TrEMBL record:
<dbReference type="GO" id="GO:0016020">
    <property type="term" value="C:membrane"/>
</dbReference>
<dbReference type="GO" id="GO:1902936">
    <property type="term" value="F:phosphatidylinositol bisphosphate binding"/>
</dbReference>
<dbReference type="Pfam" id="PF00650">
    <property type="entry name" value="CRAL_TRIO"/>
</dbReference>
<feature type="domain" description="CRAL-TRIO">
    <location>
        <begin position="9"/>
        <end position="123"/>
    </location>
</feature>
<dbReference type="InterPro" id="IPR036865">
    <property type="entry name" value="CRAL-TRIO_dom_sf"/>
</dbReference>
<dbReference type="InterPro" id="IPR001251">
    <property type="entry name" value="CRAL-TRIO_dom"/>
</dbReference>
<protein>
    <recommendedName>
        <fullName>CRAL-TRIO domain-containing protein</fullName>
    </recommendedName>
</protein>
């Protein structure tokens, strides 16, 4: 579901994190459980990887295999809670968000995320 890639040779380079939805069965895995897993991995990275904190992160999201059932789990309340945790509570320094293989129906969810983010994050 989430994979921090190996460190680059440049110590000042942002850490690259890959997030894939493909194998997450929406009938067995709730969005809340996926977010909990992501937050646990972020906790480990924040505690053990100084470069992750100092140089920042690039998040690559691969939406291959995402379904309507995944999107139906994203209520506005959950989206707001995810935003609060990732942007307001964690000491993250996002350098970029890159999303690939986005189906047409998933763009509405990304627009919902964009509507609550500040302009600086949206531009990244």
């Amino acid at each position: 579901l989430i994979l921090p890639l190996t460190k680059t040779t440049d110590p000042a380079a942002p850490r690259i994190v890959l997030l894939r939805i493909e194998n997450a069965d929406p009938t067995r895995i709730r969005v809340e459980d996926g977010v909990k897993l992501i937050l646990m991995i972020l906790d480990i990275l924040l505690n053990e990887d100084d470069n992750f904190v100092i140089a920042g992160q690039h998040l690559f999201i691969d939406d291959k295999g995402i379904s309507v059932n995944h999107m139906l789990q994203l209520t506005p309340t959950i989206v707001k809670k995810i935003h609060t945790c990732l942007i307001d509570a964690y000491a993250l320094r996002p350098k970029g968000f890159h999303v690939i293989n986005v189906p047409q129906f998933a763009e509405a969810a990304y627009n919902m995320f964009k509507s609550i983010m500040n302009e600086k994050i949206v531009n990244r």
